[in-house]
Design a protein that fits this description.
single chain, alpha/beta, seven-stranded parallel β-sheet, 8 helices, 39% helix, oxidoreductase, NAD(P)-bd_dom_sf, oxidoreductase activity
Length: 283
């Protein structure tokens, strides 16, 4: 039986990914910072683990504040001790603040860098030796393809998220032909979550988190390595896998939510892509 570590799993997309992976035969380590439920933050690692267990699955709740490397280390160790290994690691922890530079205090910027970028890097750093020893493993990161319009009106947040996408594309080159892969995933439309509820976003503008979870499951099950280094969009990836009916994902059955992401993305490759760059190799 395979094991998945999901960091940022106490609600929303992370919760749905955890449930979907469990339903499809994975042990799930449910990791997140939230251990006590409140009106401000509904859902905890314990409530999600109980949902999985009530469905007959195997779940392990672990407290993980991604700003604390000690807790990241403990999360990986606890999961390994319980299940004997980790096959898939999903990084879904996130700090969201969509504002312009002039309206984003340094303290808030630091928080987004810590949670979105540094936290994802810490998970990779801790798990990579494990994957290298077992010669297999998948990293799935929640981050977008890289394109300029994404930065508009939310540049500080974009820096923290695009950094994760750079990690995906850069690390993928190091992982080629190792049996290990890293893939990023991002939704095409708005996704219903606690944040959208608090901000009273109309249901007709949103999809259920199940669409991201279904795409994540297919990435987790992919064996060829063809997704290594890819920054995927949930709808586009599912269409490439043969899915044609997306009505099941609508929050309001009467409306298809508008797409926020571009239909096509620019290639970041240059004509010198395959050339060896050794000028600073000894530094």
């Amino acid at each position: 039986m395979k094991t998945a570590l999901v960091i940022g799993a106490s609600r929303g997309i992370g919760r749905e990914i955890s449930l979907t992976l469990s339903r499809n035969g994975f042990n799930v380590c449910v990791a997140a910072k939230t251990t006590d439920e409140s009106k401000q933050l509904p859902g905890t690692i314990y409530s999600v683990s109980k949902e999985i267990q009530d469905l007959g699955g195997s779940a392990l709740p672990v407290k993980c504040n991604v700003r604390d490397m000690t807790e990241v280390k403990n999360t990986v160790k606890t999961c390994m001790d319980k299940f004997g290994g980790i096959d898939v690691a999903v990084y879904n922890a996130g700090s969201i603040f969509w504002e312009k530079v002039c309206r984003t205090p340094l303290k808030r910027f630091d928080l987004m860098l810590d949670v979105n970028l540094r936290g994802s890097y810490s998970m990779v750093e801790e798990l990579l030796p494990v994957y290298q020893e077992q010669k297999s493993g998948k990293f799935i990161m929640v981050s977008p393809p890289i394109y300029s319009r994404f930065f508009e009106g939310k540049t500080p947040y974009s820096i923290s998220k695009i950094g994760v996408s750079i990690l995906t594309q850069g690390l993928a080159k190091e992982l080629k032909d190792t049996g290990i892969s890293i893939t990023s995933l991002w939704p095409a439309t708005g996704i219903k979550s606690h944040v959208t509820d608090v901000n009273h976003i109309e249901q007709k503008l949103l999809r259920k988190a199940t669409i991201v979870a279904d795409a994540c499951l297919r990435i987790a099950q992919e064996r060829s390595g063809k997704l290594n280094g890819k920054c995927l969009i949930d709808e586009d990836f599912l269409r490439s896998e043969g899915v044609t009916d997306f009505t099941q994902y609508r929050c309001d059955p009467r409306f298809e939510p508008p797409r926020m992401m571009p239909a096509e993305f620019p290639s970041l490759k240059v004509k010198e892509e395959g050339d060896s760059f050794k000028v600073f190799s000894k530094l």
